[in-house]
């Protein structure tokens, strides 16, 4: 999503707002006047920038690309000027809130060079890499093309190893042409980061967590050490089951799992292959997690929209079909909205329904990757998605709405505080809500008619862990790669080799066919060309269990954590809302403490949730030895 880490999406009005620093010692009143002016300028810049970016992602063409590049250039210039001016107040004793705004302004610096020519070059590259990803397609020998949304569906549902390899290789070819531009993009960002006093852009990215970059890295490693043993058990179990299904195609001597077999284009979440790895013990096998895709299709169809499956490329299908897809997609979003309103949140504004992009338009390229927006930073909330009726999108809808409800909750804060407590919080809200999509909740809303007994918890937990636990080392590998690219530890000549070394090290997955430096596989993952930091999702996977537990407690729930749903609990909603309204106005540790009682990233609740599964996996793996 486009969260205006204050400085990312800004633009315009620089010369109108920047003022010549005076030589007299500055006062608190001057600092206040400066911050008022900065907040106003950043608000306008973020709004202008979001309008342009929205167009660039929903109408990909040369003009929208040039416009968004220009606004980002102006926005970065504004931020750099404001940061420079803010240093005038470095030695002034300021009230806590004002000092924090100054600090956030400075640590949120864009990794952008002062030199106008270099800055323009950087923003052009950023826009064109985003556009290249959005336009990316895999076309087979017969000329049939698939965009990323079609590729995702194919990778989720296909169970033929050769077919999977073909489409995997096809989609990954999207990255190769980006390689040179990406290399230059990194160089330019590093020039900017160094000008701000950072070692490199990775150092700058890791500075935004109310602790030093080194402390932050240590926190991440500490949390991973808590969770890695569970991941290893899951990996061992899944690998065995894949070998049972695919034989030699899954059986690598080095113990890696071939990445194309995991039900996801990037092997980042594995829930889609639940059918392949489900428990075989009949006592457990009888309990199948609710087939949400079927249940949703049925319930939405009952609302009088027939669901069609569009397997052809965008452009196929009639107007009528498109209308039905849109109506079904809106229904999907309404499930998410009604969860939030059950907690006491106001419904989404009318403009949300008018301005969002819910389905893939038939006539043009768009960036399909889901994102949530608050274009005017107040109430022009939108999502941009290419929704299909299935499990993954059901979760993603809740994820995106988490962003939107957060954005609206902090819209009374000064602009500099209109952000998540940290970026991991922003990514965790909707996911924490989605953890409440338990069988009992699904029964309440008519998506299943039976609530399974306690013995069904293992199958259900396995389904959830395939998404939640499997994801952790993917997120770590991705940003470790990027941090090492930024620091120069990984040289451009080794981009792809290092990518797979890290994927193997953290995830234990390997590419289906030999890769070389003629490939650029990181480019086939949206967050690399679009330059969205990724460790935020690692944090979010962990925070979401902390938030979920806190809301379960607030709702008065007693019982095993994985069976809690706080749907309809105003007490849980109030607790959540307090956290959301604070935005980034205080250190995240304080926000977390108010919400959960703990002031640090803690894998405890996640381990508590999966404790029964962890034991079961250990038994399965021991027995299989
Ligand atoms: O990018 C996203 C969201 C938008 S912020 C759909 N996610 C990551 C991804 O898709 O790679 C959510 C999970 C991880
Ligand atoms: Zn998100």
Number of contiguous helices: 25
Distinct bound molecules: L-captopril, zinc ion
Instruction: Return the average pLDDT rounded to an integer.
Output: 94
- Work out the oligomeric state of the chains in this entry: single chain
Features:
625 residues, mainly alpha, two-stranded antiparallel sheet, two-stranded parallel sheet, 25 helices, 3% strand, globular, disordered N terminus, binds L-captopril, binds zinc ion
Structure description:
Among the domains are: 1-110; 292-451 and 535-624. Helix content is 58%, strand content 3%. α5 (116-135) packs antiparallel against α8 (179-195). A hairpin with a 5-residue loop joins β1 (138-139) and β2 (145-146). It is globular. The chain contains 25 helices and 6 strands. The protein has helices at residues 14-17, 28-58, 62-86, 96-107, 116-135, 148-157, 161-172, 179-195, 201-205, 213-246, 274-277, 282-285, 292-302, 319-342, 350-355, 391-409, 423-434, 439-444, 457-487, 495-507, 535-554, 570-582, 588-596, 604-609, 611-624; strands spanning 138-139, 145-146, 257-258, 371-374, 381-384, 509-510. The longest helix has 34 residues, at 213-246. By secondary structure, it is mainly α. The relative contact order is 0.12. The strands form 3 sheets. Strands 1-2 form a two-stranded antiparallel sheet. A two-stranded parallel sheet has the order 3-6. Bound molecules: L-captopril and zinc ion (ZN). L-captopril is lined by residues 1, 268, 370-371, 396, 399, 537. Keywords: Disulfide bond, Glycoprotein, Metal-binding, Signal, Zinc. The active site is at 400 (proton acceptor 1), 400 (proton acceptor 2), 527 (proton donor 1), 527 (proton donor 2).
């Amino acid at each position: 999503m486009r969260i205006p880490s204050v400085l990312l999406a800004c633009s315009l009005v620089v010369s109108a707002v920047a003022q010549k620093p005076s030589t007299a010692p500055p006062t608190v009143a001057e600092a206040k006047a400066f911050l008022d002016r900065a907040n106003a300028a950043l608000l306008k810049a973020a709004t202008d920038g979001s309008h342009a970016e929205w167009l660039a992602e929903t109408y990909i063409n040369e003009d929208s690309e040039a416009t968004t590049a220009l606004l980002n250039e102006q926005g970065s210039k504004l931020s750099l000027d404001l940061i420079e001016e803010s240093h005038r107040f470095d030695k002034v004793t300021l009230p806590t809130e004002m000092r924090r705004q100054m600090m956030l302004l400075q640590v949120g610096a864009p990794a952008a060079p002062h030199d106008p020519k270099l800055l323009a070059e950087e923003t052009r590259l950023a826009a064109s890499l985003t556009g290249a990803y959005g336009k990316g397609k895999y076309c087979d020998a017969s000329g049939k093309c698939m965009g990323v949304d079609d590729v995702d569906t194919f990778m989720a549902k296909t169970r033929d190893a050769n077919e999977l390899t073909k489409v995997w290789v096809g989609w990954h070819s999207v990255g190769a042409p980006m390689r040179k531009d990406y290399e230059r993009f990194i160089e330019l960002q590093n020039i900017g980061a160094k000008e701000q006093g950072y070692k490199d852009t990775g150092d700058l990215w890791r500075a935004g967590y109310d602790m030093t970059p080194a402390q932050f890295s240590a926190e991440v490693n500490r949390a991973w050490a808590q969770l890695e043993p569970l991941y290893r058990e899951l990996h061992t179990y899944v690998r065995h089951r894949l070998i049972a299904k695919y034989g030699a195609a899954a059986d690598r001597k080095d113990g890696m799992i071939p990445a194309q077999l995991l039900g996801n284009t990037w092997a980042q979440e594995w829930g889609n292959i639940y059918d392949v790895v489900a428990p075989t013990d009949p006592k457990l096998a009888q309990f199948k997690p609710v087939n949400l895709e079927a249940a949703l299709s049925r319930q939405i169809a009952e609302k009088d929209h027939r669901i069609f499956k569009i397997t052809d490329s965008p452009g196929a299908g009639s107007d009528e079909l498109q209308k039905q897809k849109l109506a079904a997609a809106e229904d999907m979003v309404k499930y998410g909205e009604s969860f939030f309103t059950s907690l006491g949140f106001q419904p989404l504004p009318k403009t949300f329904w008018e301005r969002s992009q819910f389905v893939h338009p038939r006539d043009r390229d768009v960036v399909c990757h889901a994102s949530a927006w608050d274009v005017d930073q107040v109430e022009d909330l939108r999502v941009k998605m290419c929704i299909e009726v299935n499990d993954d999108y059901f979760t993603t809808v809740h994820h995106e709405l988490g962003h939107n409800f957060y954005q609206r909750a902090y819209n009374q804060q000064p602009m500099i505080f209109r952000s998540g407590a940290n970026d991991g919080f922003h990514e965790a809200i909707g996911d924490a809500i989605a953890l409440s999509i338990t069988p009992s909740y699904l029964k309440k809303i008519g998506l299943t008619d039976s609530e399974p007994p306690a013995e069904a918890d293992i199958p259900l937990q396995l389904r959830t862990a395939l998404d939640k636990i499997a994801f952790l080392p993917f997120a770590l590998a991705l940003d470790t790669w990027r941090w090492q690219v930024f620091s120069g530890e990984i040289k451009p000549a080794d981009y792809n080799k290092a990518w797979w070394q890290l994927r193997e090290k953290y995830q234990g997955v390997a590419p289906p066919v030999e890769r070389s430096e003629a490939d650029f596989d990181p480019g086939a993952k949206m967050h690399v060309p679009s330059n969205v930091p990724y460790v935020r999702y690692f944090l979010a996977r962990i925070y979401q269990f902390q938030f979920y537990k806190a809301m379960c407690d607030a709702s008065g729930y007693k019982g095993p954590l994985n069976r809690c749903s706080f749907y309809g609990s105003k007490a849980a909603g109030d607790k959540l809302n307090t956290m959301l309204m604070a935005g980034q106005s205080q250190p995240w540790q304080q926000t977390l403490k108010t919400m959960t009682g703990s002031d640090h990233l803690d894998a405890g609740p996640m381990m508590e949730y999966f404790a029964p599964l962890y034991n079961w996996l250990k038994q399965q793996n021991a027995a299989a030895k």
